[in-house]
Design brief:
heterodimer; A: four-stranded antiparallel beta sheet; 11 strands; 48% strand; B: 110 residues; mainly beta; four-stranded antiparallel beta sheet; 9 strands; 0% helix; globular
Chain lengths: 116, 110
């Protein structure tokens, strides 16, 4: 079974440009999450989708970030316009909770974003 | 939110058991404890989870104290490949929003 995949693995852009990150969750996982680690900081939650709906976007830093999950499958995270402080590693995770009370999330390899 | 406290770093000799502690004194009755690790810059890797009973899988064992205020992850025979940052996470109130702390940087020594 394929794990969570992310594309691209690395992106280098200039300040003010737009970048779109993509995440393909594990097949059948309704829950999809975005996290990020910026330089020297801890991994922080950004948002959570259940199928195509945003369940919790409390971690999104500002309105330059837009996440979508069309059709409840893959998700994109767009940063427009990118700023220097957006540099970091963006992780995607997915999980399938169903009727269970616990929720192990499976993480992708991350996208390293560098804004110059 | 339930928070966790872990030692910043630990060393372990190759082939020996690595015991990684975690304090989660504010945990609620229905909150699970999860352990993940991050090797280099890879994505966090799921290891194990538990609620109140001790758990074991092919990777590790998880010992949770009776009062659930702390737990210990045990890697029974550490190898050099186990060198990583280990995170203890408590899902705050079932929100599914993991809160990562600084974790424990485990170094397995040859």
């Amino acid at each position: 079974e394929a794990g969570v995949t992310q594309f691209p693995s690395h992106s280098v852009i200039e300040k003010g440009q737009t970048v779109t990150l993509r995440c393909d969750p594990i097949s059948g996982h309704d829950n999809l999450y975005w996290y990020r680690r910026v330089m020297g900081k801890e991994i922080k939650f950004l948002l959570h989708f259940v199928k195509e709906s945003k369940q919790d976007e409390s971690g999104m830093p500002n309105n330059r970030f837009l996440a979508e999950r069309t059709g409840g499958t893959y998700s994109t995270l767009k940063v427009q316009p990118a700023e220097l402080e957006d540099s970091g590693v963006y992780f995607c995770a997915s999980s399938q909770v169903g009727g269970r009370k616990y929720n192990e999330q499976f993480f992708g390899p991350g996208t390293r974003l560098t804004v110059l | 939110d339930a928070k966790t406290t872990q030692p910043t770093s630990m060393d372990c000799a190759e082939g020996r058991a690595a015991n990684l502690p975690c304090n989660h004194s504010t945990i609620s009755g229905n909150e699970y404890v999860y352990w993940y690790r991050q090797i280099h810059s890879q994505g966090p890797q799921y290891i194990i989870h538990g609620l109140k009973n001790n758990e074991t899988n092919e990777m590790a064992s998880l010992i949770i104290t009776e009062d659930r205020k702390s737990s210990t992850l045990i890697l029974p025979h550490a190898t050099l490949r186990d060198t990583a940052v280990y995170y203890c996470i408590v899902d705050p109130g079932g929100t599914y929003k993991y809160i990562f702390g600084t974790g424990t940087r485990l170094k397995v020594l040859a």
